[in-house]
Amino acid sequence: MLLRGFATVGSLTAVSRILGFLRDILIAAALGTGPVADAFFVAFRFPNLFRRLFAEGAFNAAFVPLFAARLEQDGRVAAKRFAEEALAILVAALLILAAVCLLAMPWLMRILAPGFLDDPEQFALAVELTRITFPYLLAMALVALYSGVLNALYRYGVAAAAPILLNLFFIGAITLVLPHFRDQPGQVLAWTVAAAGLAQLLLLLWAARHAGMDLRMPRPRLTPGVRRLLRLMLPGVLSAGAMQLNLLVGTMIATLQASAVSYLYYADRLYQLPLGIIGIGIGIVLLPELARKLRAGLNEAAHASLNRALEFSLLLTLPATAALLLVPFPIISVLFERGAFDAEAARATATALAAFALGLPAYVLVKVLQPPFFARQDTVTPLRFALVSVAANLALSLLLFFTIGFVGIALATAASSWINVLLLAVGLHQRGFLQIDGRLRRRLPRSLLATGATGALLLLLNHALADLFIGGELQRILALAILVLAGGSAYFLLAFALGAVERADFAAAFRRQSEASTSAK
User: Fold this and answer.
1) Which pLDDT tens digit goes with each residue over 239-280?
2) Chain-centre distance of CA 50, in angstroms?
3) 334 near 482, Cβ under 8 Å?
4) Is residue 369 a contact partner of residue 425, using CB atoms and an 8 Å limit?
C-alpha cells in the first residue's frame, strides 16, 4: 500500500519538479540574481512560509489523523461533517491573517528582509510583490484541506498533480506575457502566483466533488472536533514547519549580502527535487497509512510501514545526496548558466547546493519520522524538537554567515536538520514507536555501499566529460544527461546486485495496495 501510494505521489511530484526546473531556468534567464530577483524570491517565500506552516504543515498534521479516525469509527458522513467544520474555521482564520499581513506588510518586510532597507526601491518592490502574491496563501490553505480529505480516502492523484499547474502558469507567463511587460517582470511573476493558486483550488474542488466530498461552508463554530483540531494544530505550526522556518531565517540573514537570496533560492530548488519526490511524497502517504492502521489496532503493521518508509526513502535519497554533493557545478551550470545568470552566479549557487546536500538525507528523514507522532495525535513532542532545531539553525546561521558568507546559511540548515532527525529518532525509540527490523538493518549498509561506488563513478565521469561541459549548449546538455543516466543506472544495478532492494518487494507492495484500495471502496 505504501509503495503504491508513493509511486502515485512521487511520479506526479516528479513531473511537477521537472516542470519546476524549466520554470526556474526561464526565471534565471529573465531575472538572473539581481535586486528584482531577490525581491521576487522574498515575496514568494512569505506566503509559501505561511502555507507550509499553517496549511500543509500544522493543519495537515492535525487534520488528517482526526479525519481518518472519523472515517474508521463513524463513517463518511461524520468525517464529511468534521471536514466542513474545519473548513469554516480555516477560512475565517486565514481571512483575518491575510488582512492583518496585507496592512502590516511594510513593517513585516523590515523583519523578513532587513537587508533591503538600504535600497528603498528594492524594499518597496518587495512589499508590492508580496501583497500581490499573498492571496495564494488563502487558495493553497483550502487546497491543503481538500488534499488531506482525498489522501485519507487513498485518492492521491489529483492532490499530487495540483502543483503542476503552478509551473505551467509560470512557463506560460514567462514565455507569453513577460515579453510584453519587460519593465515589470516582478509584477508579472507575482500575479502568476496568485492566478495559479486559484487554479489549483478549482482543481481540488472538482476532485473532492467527484469523491463525494463536496463540502459546504457552515458558520464557523468551535465544536469539540474543531477544538481538538486546534489543540493539535497550534504546536504543530513549528513542528511540521521547522524546515520552512530554517529557510526563512536563512532568507532574512541572506538579504544582508547582495544576490545571496538568489543563490540560495536556486540551490534550494535543486535539492527540493529529491526532497519533494521522496520525502514529502512518502510523508503524505505515510501519515494516513499510520493513522488508519493505529486506529484499527494494527500496531505491528504500522511498525512495518515505518520501516519500509525509512528503507525506501534512504534507498532513493542517498544517491541523490552523492550527486548534489560531489558534482554540483555541472548540474547548476547546465541548468541555469545562460542569459542574466552568469558563470559567477553558477559557481556561487553550486557551492550553496553542495552545502545544502549535506543535509538532504536529514530533510527527507524528518518527513518520515514526524508522521508516527502525528498519527498518534501528538504534535507537542515534535514541536519541542523543532524549537531546538530552529534555535540551532539561527545560532549557526549567524555564526557562519559572518564567517564564510551565504554558504554558512546552507551549512546551518543542514546541521540543524540533522539535530532534528536525531531528536525525532531518539524520541520515537524511547516511546517504542521506532523498532528497526532486520530487513532495514541488512539493506541500509548495502545502500550506503552502492552510494559510495556511485559517487566514485560520478567523479570519474565528471573529469572525463570536462571538455563537453565547456562546449556548446547541446554538448553541455549531453554531458549532463550522460552523467545523470550513467550514475543512476550504476546505482540501481549495484543496489540490486548487493541486495539493497529486490524486484519482488515492489510487486508485493503493488498487490497489497490494489487489494486495500478495493476493500476501501
Assistant:
1) 555 556 666 677 778 888 888 888 888 888 788 777 767 766
2) 13
3) no
4) yes
